[in-house]
Amino acid sequence: MAVALNCSFCFSTVREFNCANTRYDVSKYSAAAFSKSCQFSHLLSKKSVAILVHQPETVIYVLSSLSSSSSNFFINIDSNLRFDCHVRNVAKACNFHTRALRHVRSLLTDNVAQTVACSIVASRLDYCNALLSGALAATFDKLQRAQNNLARVVCQSRGRTDARPMLHSLHWLPVWQRVTYKLAVLTHKVRSTAAPTYLSELVQTRAVHHLGFCALPML
Fold first, then answer.
1. Considering 22, 54, 78, which residue would you say is the last residue of a domain?
2. What is the chain's mean pLDDT, rounded?
3. Judging by DSSP bridges, how do beta strands 49-50 and 69-72 pair with one another?
């Protein structure tokens, strides 16, 4: 009973947050399954725990109707937290718009083509990409192939041409470096301006002493 009450309280908090901060109908949120070994295993035939719900007040109903993934803010979170479904959908959308850009590329100048590529396709690669930090190389490879195809279309090159020189000429960072760059900028912002507050409260600076060197500030 205590577990059910704590779970109900968590679900109610999530529901209140989404009602206050989003314009989506929270009643349509689905439940997602996480962690193969947890304290809810005695309530379920599947050994998993739900984080997003249909109705917070019906805990047993929610916990017995889990899915393999859940979507929130256009991000698909799978049960293994590998974001395979999310990456697959992003790559599919990017390739669709890249093919459309290829049809009209000859009618566009280089500057216009690069602007269109950045606004329509590259923006999709950057959306919430910080969640991919620490992801497997195979996960980044799918997005990298989409970015490489986009660079070839903008530079009007053939399909098997090495895309690395094109990315350099377009001043585009590879996908995994874009993730690292975003995290670095966010960390610098937190340390220098203490904003956003909910992140600055979690970041603590500590000094590490090295033999023969002065103390260096580290996170």
1. 78
2. 75
3. unpaired
